[in-house]
Design goal:
It is a single chain. With about 90 residues, this protein is α+β, with helices and mostly antiparallel strands. The chain contains 3 helices and 2 strands. It has a two-stranded antiparallel sheet with strand order 1-2.
Length: about 90
């Protein structure tokens, strides 16, 4: 399946609706874009994460948590360290 798109002055283009639906994309979804042999390849970030998920070792401090808990804990740690540095 293919379609035609126009690149705007902001270097943006719209994915043709048939391709958008066929690929299962959602509005606001993040995607990875890369060049392969002179062509652009667009992949859902969620699909890429699922594909790579088993290859990334979970740090011990995050084991047993779901992804939302991991993100929340990581944010707390990051901002706690950032706040301490700004006070020094």
């Amino acid at each position: 399946m293919s379609g035609m798109a126009t690149i705007t002055s902001k270097r943006q283009f719209t994915i043709p609706v048939d391709l958008f639906r066929k690929l299962g994309f959602q509005e606001g979804e993040r995607v990875f874009v890369k060049e392969e042999n002179g062509a652009l390849k667009i992949e859902s970030a969620l699909v890429a994460l699922e594909r790579l998920g088993g290859s990334v070792k979970v740090p011990k401090r995050f084991q047993g948590m779901d992804i939302d808990q991991m993100i929340e804990k990581a944010k707390e740690e990051y901002f706690s360290k950032k706040y301490k540095k700004s006070r020094e």
